[in-house]
Amino acid sequence: MAADRGYDLLVDQLGPARLDAAAAALAKFCVEVPSWGFGRGGTRFGTYRTGKEPATVAERIAAAGRFHALTGHGATVALHFPWDGTTDADIDALAAALAKAGVKAGAINTNWFSMRETGPIDARLRFGSLTSPLDDLRAASVQHAVDCVGICRKLGSNVLSLWLPDGTNSPGQMSLFDQAERLEESLGLIYDALDDDDLLFIEYKLFEPGFYSTAIADWGRALQLCQTTGRRAKVLVDTGHHAHGTNIEQIVALCLRAKRLGGFHFNDRKYADDDLAAGSIDPAQLFRIFLALVEAERRGLGGLSKTAFLIDQSHCIKDPLLELVETVGNLEVALARALLVDLAALKAAQDTCDPTAADAVINAAWLADVRPLLKRVHTARNLPADPLAAAVGKA
Ligand SMILES: [Mn+2]
Q: What is the DSSP letter of 125?
């Protein structure tokens, strides 16, 4: 191999053993991508399609196949229903599109925010789905999740992923006690439909669309619901769904200790649930989250090996495929830096109450230019050394 001064510098700074260990962990790191992420995202004011982005389900899955070939990520694709199909024929076509693209079905996501053309899920959906006071609409909402479990069986997925838009907009609209009781009852019915090796991911979000109360507003409620619903229910952390200043890596650590961290929806934000590219606004937060996962792995809590890494973001401005490639690059940089932290030296500094030394250990990895390491990891997997540059050429 030609002289690689960038890599040699990393070896000088951090030692060959840590670089080899980081490369091995990076080679196993695989991020799931969402089918909806390959389409053009919109704002409340408009969706500015250029005509170049995939317009159909089959085109989105084909784009996922191109993404997988470029990055090695996206071996599984998260799907969303009814966006990705409604009929048995649709599901068969989806299975064929996945096979053709060389990828598999990932998490199956429910939708409780779109009215259906027929049946009870009509404009009354504004009063909620799983927490609705209306028996017929609540039952139809539970049935939608049960139908999604059926889609899991057909497509070979074992993850049902729930984000619940239910909430209220005024103090009198719904009893907070009734809201909680109906949610727990509905979740129990959904859990009963799962197979023994299925996982149920429960996502939380601080606010929106409800602006007074949200049925699953935070990780505490999500964790509590997991613990009362069943062993295979796990918390899904969407990085954009917190109050400003929330210590997300601490939530990660506590969910891992409880053995209830299912996975992530990565994205970034500046203001609220902005769905910007993960690592584009606050790469340091991403690094700290990965550091918690690396430490958990070291402690035998399965931080890296047992966690699902997914992207949930909206691509309004950039080309969606390019922005997804850029995103997994940001995730790899954050993980590489976290993997290069000398955890033994960090622990020694922490146990002797030396925060200056502890932070110096962290900064030695955080400030490292890990791009030469990532190029090596990509090349060893027969991927483009710089997937974004390769993707720009093909977009
Ligand atoms: Mn999400």
A: G
Q: What is the dihedral of CA 192, 261, 296, 25, to 10 degrees?
A: 90
CB 321 within 8 A of CB 69: no
How far apart are the CA of 351 and the centre of ligand 1, in A?
37
Report the C-alpha gap between 68 and 101 in whole angstroms.
Answer: 9
- For ligand 1, the distance from its centroid to the CA atom of residue 110, given in whole angstroms, is 11
Distance CA(22)–CA(20), nearest Å, equals 5
- Give pLDDT tens digits for 118-176: 999 999 999 999 999 999 999 999 999 999 999 999 999 999 999 999 999 999 999 99
Q: How far is the CA of 244 from the centre of ligand 1 (A)?
A: 17
Distance from the alpha carbon of residue 359 to the mean position of ligand 1, in angstroms: 31
pLDDT at 44: 85
The Cα 121–Cα 154 span in angstroms is 24
Distance 273 CA to ligand 1 centre (A): 9
Token pair recorded at residue 321: 């495929």
What pTM was computed for the model? 0.97
Which protein residues have a CB closer than 5 Å to ligand 1 (ion)? 238, 265, 312
pLDDT given at position 393: 77
| Contact in structure between 138 and 180 (CB atoms under 8 Å) | no
Distance 204 CA to ligand 1 centre (A): 8
- The DSSP code for 176 is H
Q: Do residues 303 and 256 lie in contact, with contact meaning Cβ atoms separated by under 8 Å?
A: yes
Cα 125 to Cα 60, 114, 337, 390, distances in angstroms: 28, 8, 45, 44
Q: Please tell me the distance between residue 74's alpha carbon and the centre of ligand 1 in angstroms.
A: 17
Per the CB < 8 A criterion, the answer to whether 104 and 73 are in contact is: no
Query: What one-character DSSP code corresponds to residue 203?
Result: E
> How do strand 233-238 and strand 308-311 relate by DSSP bridges?
unpaired
Q: Tokens 């969910």 sit at which residue?
A: 255
